Amino acid sequence: MGNRFTCMTKKETKDVGSRSKRMGRSQRKLVAEEDLHLQALSMALQQHQLSQRFEGSMSRRIGSTSSRRRNLSDSFSANKQVPEILENIKIKKFVLIHGEGFGAWCWYKTVALLEESGLLPVALDLTGSGIDLTDANSVTTLAEYSKPLTDYLVNLPDDEKVILIGHSIGGACISYALEHYSQKISKAIFLCATMVTDGQRPFDVFADELGSAEHFMKESKFLIHGNGKEKPPTGFMFEKEQMKGLYFNQSPSKDVALAMVSMRPSPLGPIMEKLSLSPNKYGRGHRFYIQTLDDRALSPDVQEKLVRENPPEGVFKIKGSDHCPFFSKPQSLHKILVEIAQIP
């Protein structure tokens, strides 16, 4: 190859230069995106294989200990400096909580970006989600659904805190955590999420789109009757085409394809449960909200209503994002997460 390079004519050299320029930044971006997708799919396959071999004993976390971290770390040269911005971030551990139907897998871009910034992300599978082997139909309470999160918080050292990020219905889980484990939480970030008030059900946030809970429980074609048709519904899952329109109207097709083969039914009980949130615990938490402005699952108007009725310390907005900014606007989401982490 070296000899061929040195023997090129001027014309050949000019042609190669032109092709190199045409490849440029857009080509490198496509290659990088392809690498991320391959890493995510490889990771999902490895986790599936582990779940078959070790069942209940396998880890339900994606983050600091995965082989993908080692691969992504290779992008750092030995002499690359950690960004100076990290000096302003006291709490570096982020715990990522997915929404209904999703799993830890949906955060793969966010995990990559946070790790490359020198931060410590951990994405968890909630009970009955992702590669957790629990039947979602058996999950009836928010406490059960949130158990992987609360177990993680319980096992933290006494002097350690984390930043929680909850997406969609995952907002109810981080609200629950704020109420019961506020001493372990530095900040709670609601990402187009159900930031409910005391006595409110997570489902109530979606009432404008889905109708009343009573109507949904009786008429919805998306309900799952895990204990038989004659008994109350136990879960729900939208049809694929409807999910594409609700959740992924701005997301890349490869991410949509990944979601279509990875999403699972959601337990119904946790989203129909009224939360008990006190001013002395939940009310003292440092809450932030990220609005998604091209969201068809939780409309911008509904998100605006949430922050108006239950004001957080800060509100951030992502233009052009659907309900899944970790797919459609990962860089914008990352920038906001780092900005919030720097707030004293």
TrEMBL record:
Question: Compositionally biased, Low complexity: which spans?
Answer: 57-66
Q: Which InterPro entries does the entry mention?
A: AB_hydrolase_1, AB_hydrolase_fold, MES/HNL
Which keywords fit this entry according to its UniProt record?
Answer: Hydrolase
**Is DNA damage found in the keyword set?**
no
Domain called AB hydrolase-1: residue spans: 94-331
Biased composition (Basic and acidic residues) is annotated at: 9-18
- Mind telling me which Gene3D superfamilies this protein's record contains? alpha/beta hydrolase
Q: Which GO terms describe its molecular function?
A: methyl indole-3-acetate esterase activity; methyl jasmonate esterase activity; methyl salicylate esterase activity
Task: Provide one Gene Ontology biological process annotation.
Answer: jasmonic acid metabolic process
On the tree of life, the source organism's domain of life is Eukaryota
Q: What is this protein called?
A: Methylesterase 12, chloroplastic isoform X2
- This protein's species is Arachis duranensis (Wild peanut)
What is this protein's gene name? LOC107491494
